[in-house]
Design brief:
The structure holds two protein chains of two kinds. Chain A is mostly beta strands. Helix content of chain A is 0%, strand content 48%. Chain A starts with a strand and ends with a strand. Chain B is globular and about 40 Å long. Classes of the chains: A mainly beta, B mainly beta.
Chain lengths: 116, 111
């Protein structure tokens, strides 16, 4: 079974450009989460999505960041007009729809964003 | 809000030594607790979990017990190997599914 897939694994952008990060959850999982890991820090929650719905975006910066999980295709985390402070590793996780197994989140390998 | 505090690293041990990484939490209610491991350049892998008080999670020789009285979930292993070198994260699951992580503890095991 394929796990959570993220691409690209590494992304380099210049200040002011857009960054688009993709996440394909484990097959059968309909809950997706995005976390950010700044250098030398733990992971911080950003957003929780289900298909076509944003459930909790309390960790998302108010500007420039957006996320979606369409009916078809991967979840996308979009960062507009990137700044150097956006340089970080962005991890996606997914979980199942119901039961106790719902709460176990499985993580992808991450996208490491570097803003020059 | 909820929070997780881990012992600071790095922790450096010789092979076959006993490992303890302390983790305490602050939360309303009784959250599920997790340990994740991150190897260099990789994502997080679930190591073990416990969902209620006195539960013991275990995997690959690691174990941790959910202690409600002390709000702790310390990670232990009786005999570490070089291949255990990684960053270990303690986390709790808040109501609403999001995970709250500790800052992580770097473990280095020398042969």
């Amino acid at each position: 079974n394929a796990g959570v897939m993220q691409n690209p694994r590494h992304l380099v952008r210049r200040r002011g450009q857009e960054a688009r990060l993709r996440c394909s959850p484990v097959k059968g999982h309909s809950h997706v989460y995005w976390y950010r890991q700044l250098p030398e820090e733990g992971l911080k929650f950003m957003v929780y999505l289900q298909k076509e719905n944003i459930i909790d975006e309390s960790g998302m910066p108010k500007e420039r960041f957006s996320a979606e999980f369409p009916k078809e295709g991967p979840s996308i985390l979009r960062i507009q007009q990137v700044v150097r402070g956006d340089s970080a590793a962005y991890f996606c996780a997914s979980s199942q729809t119901s039961g106790d197994s719902k709460e176990t989140q499985y993580f992808g390998p991450g996208t490491r964003l570097l803003v020059l | 809000g909820d929070s997780v505090t881990q012992m600071e690293g790095p922790v450096t041990l010789s092979e076959e030594a006993f490992l303890t990484i302390n983790c305490t939490y602050t939360a309303t209610g009784y959250p599920s607790l997790f340990w994740y491991v991150q190897y260099p350049g990789e994502g997080l892998q679930l190591l073990l979990k416990a969902t209620k008080a006195d539960d013991k999670g275990s995997n690959k020789g690691f174990e941790a017990t959910y202690r409600k009285e002390t709000t702790s979930f310390h990670l232990e292993k009786g005999s570490v190997q070089v291949s255990d070198s990684a960053v270990y994260f303690c986390a709790l699951r808040e109501y609403g599914n999001k995970l709250v992580f500790g800052a992580g503890t770097i473990l280095r095991v020398k042969s």
